[in-house]
């Protein structure tokens, strides 16, 4: 059974497709792109309104056996860009659910009391996923707008790829509730088809609630 890693890259806006294209040619099955904002490297530049930039944040679930080829492909694809063009890093994933099928990754042996469940679905279905999670004991969650990554097989309109709009739902749950929450989300009909969504878990270290006690 395959284990998985979450591969994250941060690059200038509109460069994300270049990275995902290289990654998919090397074995990655796709990814999700978020839009972020880079900040100035000094307070002086920030006061002048300089140094800020729009970023693409690319998140890809990659099987362990193709992780190194995918990383090498991304590095090669950006080798001619300017210095400090972007960042690339990976982190552990201990469970992955795709198209209603559940796969265990590396078991969380760190004894964490909390898990971060990330659910990526087509736009409009995050509320359904959150409702399913609550039925299994989850509290609240946070939704982030995102977009998918284009493939040659994607639908085309006037010669252009139609990249599906996505929603990313972030839920922190007690580790003892992780499996029940995933099972509840998996039961949704909107996640039963291949490519309709993905969910994965990772340990949430030192989780703390902020504000008045």
Automatic annotation (TrEMBL):
Recorded superkingdom: Bacteria
Name assigned to this protein: Nitrogen regulatory protein PII
SMART domains tied to this protein: P-II
PROSITE patterns: PII_GLNB_DOM
InterPro entries: N-reg_PII, N-reg_PII-like_a/b, N-reg_PII/ATP_PRibTrfase_C
Taxonomic lineage from the root: Bacteria, Pseudomonadati, Spirochaetota, Spirochaetia, Spirochaetales
Gene Ontology terms describing biological process: regulation of nitrogen utilization
Molecular function GO terms recorded: enzyme regulator activity
SUPFAM superfamilies the UniProt entry points to: GlnB-like
């Amino acid at each position: 059974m395959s284990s998985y890693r979450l591969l994250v890259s941060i690059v200038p806006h509109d460069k994300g497709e270049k990275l995902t294209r290289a990654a998919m040619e090397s074995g990655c099955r796709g990814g999700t792109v978020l839009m972020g904002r880079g900040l100035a490297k000094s307070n002086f530049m920030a006061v002048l309104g300089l140094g800020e930039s729009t970023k693409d944040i690319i998140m890809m679930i990659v099987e362990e056996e193709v992780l190194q080829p995918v990383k090498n492909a991304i590095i090669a694809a950006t080798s001619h860009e300017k210095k400090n063009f972007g960042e690339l890093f990976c982190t552990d994933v201990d469970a992955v659910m795709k198209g209603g099928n559940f796969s265990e990754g590396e078991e969380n042996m760190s004894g964490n009391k909390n898990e971060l469940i990330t659910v990526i679905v087509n736009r409009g279905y995050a509320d359904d996923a959150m409702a399913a999670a609550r039925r299994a004991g989850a509290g609240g969650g946070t939704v982030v707008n995102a977009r998918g990554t284009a493939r040659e097989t994607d639908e085309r309109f006037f010669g252009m790829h139609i990249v599906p709009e996505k929603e990313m739902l972030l839920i922190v749950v007690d580790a003892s509730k992780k499996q029940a929450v995933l099972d509840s989300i998996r039961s949704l009909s909107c996640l039963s088809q291949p490519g309709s969504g993905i969910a994965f878990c990772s340990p949430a270290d030192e989780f703390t609630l902020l504000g008045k006690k």
